[in-house]
Amino acid sequence: QGLLHQAIKEAFYNDSQNERAAAYSYLEQQRGRTEYRKYEVLQAAPFHLTEKWSKLTTIGKAIYYRIENGKELIDTRYYISSAQLSAEELANHVRSHWAVENQLHC
C-alpha cells in the first residue's frame, strides 16, 4: 500500500502536525549492543486516512537507533492500528509481536 505508506510518512514529517505526536522512548543495553527506541503515535482522522481506511484509528512510527560492534544503524518503521493506542501501548504491541516472531524461529 504505497499511497498509505507515503501518507503516513508525510503525517509524521509535517512540522505542524508533528507537534501532536505522542512519544515514548527508552534505551536498552544487552548482549554487547546499545539500542535506543522511540515510538510516536498520531490519530489518523486529521490526515483524512479514514476516508479510505475506515477502521484506521492510530498511525505509529518507530525509530530504532542501534550501536552494535561499533556500527551505527538507524531503522524507521511505520504501523497502523484500528485500536486507540498510546505511544507506550504501541511500543508494547510491537515488542510482543517480535517476541512471538523470534520464538517461531528458535
Number of domains: 1
Number of alpha- plus pi-helical segments: 3
Measured distance between first and last alpha carbons = 31 Å
Strand content: 35-45%
Q: Averaged pLDDT, please?
A: 84
Uncertain stretches of 5 or more adjacent residues: 99-106
How big is the Rg?
15 Å
Helix percent reads 25-40%
The count of DSSP E runs of length 2 or more, i.e. the number of strands, is 4
Strand order of the largest sheet: 1-2-3-4
What gross morphology would you assign?
elongated
By secondary-structure content and strand pairing, the structural class works out as alpha+beta
Biggest sheet details? 4 strands, antiparallel
Summarize the structure in words.
With 106 residues, the protein is of the alpha+beta class. The protein has one domain. It has helices spanning 2-13, 15-18, 87-104; strands spanning 22-30, 33-43, 58-68, 71-81. It has a four-stranded antiparallel beta sheet with strand order 1-2-3-4. It is elongated and about 45 Å long. The N and C termini lie far apart (31 Å). Mean pLDDT is 84; it is low at 99-106. It comes from Pseudoalteromonas aurantia.
